Amino acid sequence: MSAMRVMKGTRDIKAVRVLALVTLAGTGLALAGCGSGEKDGPEVAWAGRVCSHVGDGAQNLKLPASQGKKPEEVKEGALQFLDALSGELSRLGKGIKKEGKPPVSGGEATYLRVLKTLGNTRGAVADASETLRRAKVEDTASLQKALAKAGKAMADFNAYEGPAKDFKSNPELSPAFEKADSCKKIEGVGADAAAARDH
Fold it and tell me: What domain of life (predicted)?
């Protein structure tokens, strides 16, 4: 379900929490664990380090509160969250660049594609933030309208499932992401996800 559809069905200022949850789910930032998979070979170790970068941002992002808040305060909380998310996406991109291209056939092409998608995603978050920042919010109705517009600005982001899943599009990397310990706790990425698909 897209953020736009969710927000259209939300009738109070809690809509901002929907926006926050959608963005967190897209990056996997709230789901990753730790571990490196060093014992399984260079590609598994590399995948583990990438997943660890994904997990490092979880503690830096907090869902904005909306209960009991004035619409203007909810808007400000959403802006702070989006700005923090943009910063975490930037940090994630730097982490991936630090690890370099994966040690598999076709790794460089996959690596460059993932970085491009990550950059585009950060751009979508920035667009949503700017759209919300410009919106005039005076009451609940105007807040809902502003959040809906922000959701529309993030249309491309809503389909984004994170760099770990994008790296798995390379068939030589997919097993590595399923084996690496720090990837196993990212929803839809690790071995548990692969087992679920087989049933």
Answer: Bacteria
